[in-house]
C-alpha cells in the first residue's frame, strides 16, 4: 500500500503543479474571457508566430467572443436581412459578443520578414507588452494599452489599422518612388509584383485557428497552382496576372473538443450557426463594406491606379454562411460616432463551397421560422456568386428543419430539368478535374449553382461529414481559380 500511496501523492503534486503554471497570456485571456480550453484555441497564432502562419502575403484577422461591453452594443437592422427588428436583436443578445482581438501582418516567407501585429487586444498593461510573442509592427502600436471592456468598440480601430496597412502595402508595389522612400517601403513590405486581387478566406464549423491557417494554405496553394498550370491558350492572353493579397479570417466556430462525445458537437450546431451569422453581420461585414472599399479608393487616389483591385470572398460550410450574409447583406454593427449602417459595396466574386445554410436564403423564404435570414433581393452586390453542392456531403443534410444549399437535394430541387417556375440560378456541373460545364440557364445575372458531386467526392483526412471538407485538392483549386478569373463558363459573365 505504501508505494501506491506515494504514487498517488506524486501524481497529485504533478497535477497541482500543472494547474498552478500559468500560460504566457493567461492574465489577458482571463480578462477577455478567452481563457477556456476551447476559446483559447482561436488565438493560437499569438503563441506560435512562425509555426501557425499563412504562407502567403497577407493578414490573419482573429475574431473571438469576448465579454459584452457594460454599455451594450449598437446594431441596426437592414432590409437585406429579411428580418424583423426583434429577430435581429436576438441574434446579438448574448453575454459575449464577437470582437476582433488580433490582426497579424504576414509574408509568404516568414524567415525574411517578421510577422507582426497591427492590432492586439492582449496588450492590456505595460507588463503584458513584454509577454507578447508576436511583436507589434511599430513601437507606437506596442505601447497602446487595450482595455478588455473596450474589445468590441476597439474592433473598429483594429480594422482601421488593417485598412491603412493594406493601402500602404498595395501602394508600395505600385509607386514609382526612388531612394529613401522606396527603401523604407521595401524594408516594411518587401518587393515584388503588384498585387492583383484581394482574397478573403473564411472556414467553417469546428475549425480552430491552427486548422484554419492550414486550410488557408491548402486553398491558396492549389489556386496558385491552377494559375501556373493554365492551358497554353490562356497563358498567351494578356492582362491576366495573379498575385493576390490574402486575408484569412478566423472565428470561434468550435464549442467542444475532440475528446468529447460527437453528440456534444451536434448540440453545438444551432449555436455555431447563429455565431456564423453574427460574424457576417459584424466584423466580416465591416471588412467587406467599410475596410476594403476604403483601401481601393485610397489606392486609386494616391497612385492614380484607375482599375479597382477585385475583391474575392471564399467561404466553406459555416464560413460560407458568414461570408454570404457579410457580402450579400452587410454589417449590422454601427461605428460609435455614426447613426446609420455602412453602405454596401460590390464584391467581385463570392464562392460558397458546400454552404451550411438554408437554400431559402437565396431562393426565397419558405420557412415558418421568422428568425431565418434570407435575402429578399438575392445577392446583387456579388458580381459573380458561385455555390457548390455534392451528393457525398453528409454534413449539410444534418439539420432536419430545412434543406441546405450544399446538399444534393437542394440542387435537384432548383436545377431539375422539370423545375416548376422561373429558374433563378444558372445550373452547372463540375467534373472530377474541376472543369465546369453549363446545364441550364437561369434568370439571375450572377448566381451559379454547381453540382460538384464528381469533384467533392472523397473524405478529407481526419474530417467528418462525408465529402463535406473535400475542397483542398488541386482540382478544387482549378474550379475556384476559373471563378475568380472569369474563365470557362464564367468567361462571358464579365
TrEMBL record:
This is Putative lipoprotein. It comes from Janthinobacterium agaricidamnosum NBRC 102515 = DSM 9628. It comes from the Bacteria. Keywords: Lipoprotein.
